Amino acid sequence: MAAVILFNKPYGVLCQFTSAEGRPCLKDYVPVPDVYPAGRLDTDSEGLLVLTGYGRLQARIAEPERKLAKTYWAQVEGVPSPQVIRMLCAGLDLGDFVSQPCTARLMDEPGGLWPRNPPIRVRLQIPTAWIELELKEGKNRQVRRMTAKVGHPTLRLIRAAIGPWTLDGLPPGEWRQAAIPEKWL
Asked: DSSP secondary-structure letter at 120?
């Protein structure tokens, strides 16, 4: 049976096992052979990454038509109004595609949140807020593009869950093995 690894990717780590520039990458954190990322996170995003050598599971997670929900926590500039949250939920024209409807809500800062290194930029006159978004698609830089489109640029982005798996109890830079849901075998 192929391994399933849950990894809390720190800020600045590449979602690949090699780095031509000597930047931190998965091989620096996950010493497990024959696993590969099922989907990606941008270098400047943090949070849950699932790695596996099980091809059907990689497809289930990474392919948009499979619609496995992914939950993100976005710290944004300013405090979005209820109207802005409704706009995020309805789907947005981002130029090269229209985002599918999703769920979005304002949330408190996540409990037990680790400090980011380097810290986000802070403007003393502009407050920040946290939004939880659940998407069933995952286009390139989609959450960042969505929040910018509604006037609230993302300052910090953390993927908190992929389907049944969460970051709960997993510090940044750490990994653990997980079970594959029986229905996906």
From this structure: P
